[in-house]
Amino acid sequence: MARRMSDGAFLAACRRQPAAHRPVWIMRQAGRYLPEYRELRARVEFETLTRTPELAAEVTLQPLKRFELDAAILFSDIMTPLQGMGVGLSFEPAPIVREPIRTRAQIEALPALEPKRDVPFVLETIRLVRADLPRATPLIGFAGAPFTLLCYLVCGRPSKEFAPARTFLYAQPEDAERLLTHLADAMAAYLSAQVAAGAQALMLFESWAGLLGVPEYTRLALPAVRRTLAALRPLGVPLIYYLNQGSALMGAVAGLDVDVVGVDWRSPLGEVRRVLGPDKAVQGNLDPAALFAPPAELTRAAAAVIAEAGAAPGHIFNLGHGIWPDTDPDAVARLVDFVHEHE
Ligand code: CP3
């Protein structure tokens, strides 16, 4: 299909301004569903990829070369800055923290993050990507939201219920608050440095929002996100907050000073837009499983997402969560073209 520069559609939608087409990008668009990523990963460990700017930049650009995506997202991981703060962890492939953080002494021993000293390779990756992006596509920088990082730090390994993290919130509320504040400040410093290096929008991943009821979310997770966002606001770039399984929390999120709310596939976008009000854009929310459907069914499901989001400016098409590693890249190509051609 003949196209166009990315012509600012993504940044315009973030600001709820009209755009020439509905922008689309894919959460986890750089990763294992791409043969060219798997080919590189067969030779290089994930961690080495994230720490080698030339390679991380190459991986960031891989999906942009295949598909006419409207945004790029930095190739890194939410745990990378914590590694920079001296937290020992390995990727297997999910992150495993060698010594989970559960005591006051461990929290107090966590240093502040100094991005230029602790994660220079991330900043260099951003500079390299910006120099090479096709079609003037904007680059999204990202970090984990404080509560989601707490889940990994306290539990040490991914789990279904994240019981150690949830009991920590109730058993050691002051320690939890201390850790969340520390992480909020570290991620504010991290994301500010990403913008200084060239990131044009920022996204916070609250991947474990669904673990919390409204009271605990409002009491603990939300103030920490607010703290990070408040520090970033003066930078002037659009801010995106993605919540996985966040349906019950949208009322609480409505008051947050953020430009875009990322939504998983469980909540209809029309309803989310009504709850969030007119001053927020939304991003999402096709079920990643829909990419396994026959073409006609995929386009039906994508059209349903677009119909829910509505015609008003301020919708960025995306999946409701990360793309699955066994997805056929051709389905992604069909999806991107469908969204662009849809009125
Ligand atoms: O394309 C992109 O989105 C950019 C890169 C990116 C990765 N991780 C690369 C990665 C991003 C934005 C992330 C964010 C991330 N990491 C989140 C938030 C988003 C979400 O999915 O909720 C979370 C919770 C993590 C933690 C994490 N890192 C997990 C659970 C895993 C393992 C399995 C998986 O989902 O891929 C990782 C490792 C990881 N991060 C891989 C990649 C490509 C796989 C590593 C490999 O190649 O072996």
Write a structural description.
The protein has helices spanning 9-14, 35-41, 46-51, 53-66, 80-84, 104-109, 115-118, 120-132, 146-155, 163-171, 173-197, 214-232, 250-253, 269-276, 295-309, 329-341, and strands at residues 72-73, 89-91, 95-97, 139-144, 201-206, 239-243, 260-263, 281-286, 315-319. Helix 4 (53-66) runs parallel beside helix 8 (120-132), helix 10 (163-171) packs across helix 11 (173-197) and helix 11 runs parallel beside helix 12. The longest helix is centred in the middle third of the chain and has 25 residues, at 173-197. It has a single domain (9-341), classed as TIM Barrel. The chain is of the alpha/beta class. Helix content is 48%, strand content 12%. The strands form 2 sheets. Strands 1-4-5-6-7-8-9 form a 7-stranded parallel β-sheet. Strands 2-3 form a two-stranded antiparallel ribbon. The structure holds coproporphyrinogen III.
